[in-house]
Amino acid sequence: MIVTTCLFTCCYLCLGFCGILQRATAPIERQDLDLEVQSGHGQGAGTSSVEFSSDGKLLLTGGGYTACLWEVSSALLIRRFSGHRSDVLTVAFVPERSLVVTGAKDKTIRIWDSGLRSEVRRIQCESWIHDFAITPDGKRVFAQQDDSAVICEWDIDTGRKLRTYQSPFPGDAFSICASSDERLVVAAFVDGLVIWDRSDYAQPRTIRSQETYFTSVALSADGKVVATGSSNGVVHIWELKTGIQLRMLGIHGSHVTDVYWLLAVWCGLA
Question: Is residue 86 part of a domain?
Answer without folding.
Answer: no
